[in-house]
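Chain A, query sequence.
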Amino acid sequence: MSVDERLRRGLEANATSFHPRGEVRLDRLRRRHRRRRAVAVAALTVVLGSGVSAAWFVAVGGDDGAGGPGRGVEPAAPVPTTPTPSATPSATPGATPGATVPDADWRRTVTRSEARALGVGADFLRDNFGDADRLPLVLSLDGAFYSQSGRYPGGWSVGDRGTVSYDARGRLVLTSTGFGCSGCTVAVAWRIVGGDLRLEDPDGALAAEERLMVVGSWSRQEQ
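Chain A, predicted structure.
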């Protein structure tokens, strides 16, 4: 092969394998841009993933280790209230508000020894017992009125009468209209126990004679 032929072929080879310098730089820039873009995308993915996790944690309250999210804050326990003591006086034992003693003839018997134990005077014993040791009594309740009779020394007779009412405590109030003590009142607590009427003086406010004649257990007298 002549020298001219070798030169021609060499020039053709260089021409086909030649890359302009600008093209080479552009290729390098494209590759560098692709690497930076890949790194940026990866970093953004990590950041967004962390942000979503953090947002989820904040939204649901996290896990407090008690078996589920949002259970770390317990509701405040209700503050117990102390009932205010009532200023209303205590009611009659066994009596409901508005209740009244049943209308009936209620019977009991008192004795001379009971009267003496209470400190009743000799004049009262003479006028009410006479020579007897026992004094049968009947308390008759009829609506707004009452009467009390007994077997006194002169025989059965009415010893007292008057009106019936009830106070704020539900106590039975007997107001006399009799000649000896008109306007005198006796207030007693009451209750029905086994069919009997129990009249009581829990405050100890009654005189000895009143306790003897009123306080005690009264049995309903059969008609």
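The helical segments are 3-16, 21-60, 112-118, 122-128, 208-214. The chain has two domains: 1-81, 97-220.
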